[in-house]
Amino acid sequence: PRPIELLKAAQADTAEHKANTPVTGAVVHWFKMDLRTTDNTALFCASQKAQAAGVPLIALYILSPQDLEAHLTAPARVDFMLRTLEVLKKGLAELDVPLWVETVEKRREIPSRIMELMGEWGASHLFANMEYEVDELRRDAKMTRLLGEKGLVMDMLHDTCVVPPGRLTSGSGGQYAVYTPWFRTWVRHVHENLDLLELVESPARNPESTRTKFAHLFACPIPTAPKNKSLSKEDRERYRALWPAGEHEAMKRLSKFADQAIGKYQQNRNIPSHPGTSNLSVHFASGTLSARTAVRTARSRNNTKKLDGGNEGIQTWISEVAWRDFYKHVLVQWPYICMNKPFKPEYSNIEWSYDMEHFNAWKEGRTGFPIVDAAMRQLRSMGWMHNRCRMIVASFLCKDLLLDWRMGEKYFMEHLVDGDFASNNGGWGFSASVGVDPQPYFRIFNPLLQSEKFDPDGEYIRKWVPELKDVKGKAIHEPYGRGAGALASKAGYPKPIVEHKGARERTLAAYKRGIDSG
Ligand code: FAD
Question: Which residue among 189, 218, 326, 507 is least packed, with the fewest CB closer than 10 Å?
Answer without folding.
Answer: 189
